[in-house]
Amino acid sequence: MSYQNLLLDISDKMALISLNNPPSNSLKMDLLKELETVIGEMQKNAEVKVIILTGAGKLFASGADILEISQVSSREQAKAMAGYGQKVFTGIENSVKPVMAAINGFCLGGGLELAMSCHFRIASDRALMGLPEITLGIIPGFGGTQRLPRLIGKGKALQMILTGEPIRSDEALALGLVNAVVPKDQLLDEARNIARKITSKSALSIAAALKAVVRGCDTVLSQGLDTEAQCFSELYGTDDMKEGLSAHLEKRKPNFADR
Q: How far is Cα 61 from Cα 102, in angstroms, rounded to an integer?
């Protein structure tokens, strides 16, 4: 299907989704609805094993749409707006296929909240990341106050949230907010290189690993270990497990069938 606010390209078992709401790629409600739809469609698409999320043009996303925020007339509407953004981003976090953010420029407010809902992030050396909502008299509402401290620690997260000041990509790397920083003109090539390493693996084990890590990180260690054991056991006896073990013993590359 076609989208008004997104660009979609599928090739080599990768889905490249580009936010396309010029000039700032603000996350208006129509864009969020399309994002929820396309992520759901990619879950069902057997030709896709990895999803790359980036921004069209020179930036990733400037944040939520300020005009839409200004038109909210009640606390109930504000809560509903925040709840919907959280729902969309939690859907990304719970994807059975890896979602990688390729941060190509400004990544602010809701844009950073979106990137943090992805399973990992790589950034351009020109990227700038931050949660400036407090400068507008509000706070992050799409998960930023919860995901940022889980990624970089409470102290630094509070500094970023309370000052509203952004950080450059090199500091984001040092804090563990992004996995890698590369020259801007190499960003998508690097994203695809990482994706290729994943697409060669079994879709079953990819989904199981995502489930174990994402669910395990949201609970105590003992429950996380139970989740890991359950995910491990669900792979036992699958064709891909048999192929992986046979390939190792025969000293060859496995040819997974995703079953």
A: 11
